[in-house]
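Hello forum,

I keep getting stuck at the same step: I have a sequence, I want structure tokens, and every attempt I make locally crashes halfway through. Rather than fight my setup again tonight, could one of you with a working pipeline run this one for me? It's a single chain of 472 residues.
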Amino acid sequence: MSELNSGNSTASPAAQEQSLYKSRKKIHPRSVTGIFANWRWILVWLTQLLYYGLPWIPWGDRQAVLFDLVNRKFYIFGLVLWPQDVFFLAIILIISAYALFLFTAVAGRLWCGYACPQTVYTEIFMWIEKVIEGERSARIKLDKAPMDARKFRLRAMKFGAWGLLALWTGFTLVGYFTPIKELWGYFWSWTLGPWETFWIFFYGFMTYLFAGIMREQVCLYMCPYARFQSVMFDPDTLVITYDPERGEPRGQRKKGVDPRSVGKGDCIDCDICVQVCPTGIDIRNGLQYECIGCAACIDACDEVMDKMSYPRGLIRYTTENALEKHWGRKEIVGHVLRPRIIIYTVILIAITLGLIWGIANKPDLRVNVIRDRGVLAREVEGGLIENVYRLQIMNVTEQAHRYVVTVTGLDNIRLDGETEIDVSPATTQSFTVAARVPPESGKKGSHTIFFDVKAKENPKLAVHEKATFLMP
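Reply #2:
Ran it on my machine without issues. Output:
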């Protein structure tokens, strides 16, 4: 203790503070044109035409795609799915997973770069920003400028456009669950229900936050796919790669100069590949988990190579093995079609065919027969033995049908009461029916009987359902 308190003791180093959080530097991606940029916009148009357009397509007296949670029915054009068909959803999820595995094993993060909603809406929001505020340099300059009337006007226009698009996105989502034309009427008459209002604004707010404000942070910090993507990669996976053997050493030079004559590689160190990257990485540092596979750097680099009169492909889709062993296109394709890919493809095709077969053979009529346990087998007038049953007839089609009910399985068995019932389109109708037999028709105990339910105008629409008859 005396040494610690003495004046001759050595002073401890100054305390150092280190932040646990990385500060964000706002990214202003530069506009780029090229084949991959065109493909991104094709996917933007296709996905958004489907998303915004499907709820407005009529199909008979309803919309073509409607997930009616209240009545527990999903309408997809002419297909009606009920809670009993939930296994179709499971199969679709399995198909989606295998497709993701297959595409990733073949060519990396194709989903992230071209079809992920985060990518698609960020692309749309950035386009709106570019139209209102200008190109990259103008946006950077505007960010640094003090708030004045012009900056306030531009920001108000941008945020307002983002807000309208986000609300329309939320409105469209709810339109898949509440008939969108009815929802439109509720909106203009200010009679939206609490849940519709909540989901429109909640989904709109999340779209605005993710695509307009957070952008690349969603991909970098929130999306789990970036963290486990490397598990699905191997040395024969096509990924976006910078060719260091060709590009190094980097350095600027005049247009048309042979890089070898000045002791440099093809990379002129213009940093345009970094400027166009939506996550702000430098692809020349190698494959990084932040790369979403959008290929904007390929388009940008090819454009620079064209201006310098150098061959394209300094940044390109290739594989680790191809880069190391200098393979050509033929060798790359030959190694892409490897056992792993063939197995994924066969499984994916098999499951998809199974789903198609299952939907094509989905029954149009379902019947549940439940013996009334509250009414025991009893003797009624004429000495007949009676059991009471509750029938649930599910008309899965979108046409009304009149069904005829008959019963077999015991001698002289017959039904008491109504044996015909009308069932509206895509509805379930329940009714009670009594089955009666003479006492001599069977021994004491349980007996198997069968209820046959057939559509009166279409005998092929029929169900043969088993039940139990108790003899006292």
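The radius of gyration is 34 Å. If your local run keeps crashing, start a new thread with the error log.
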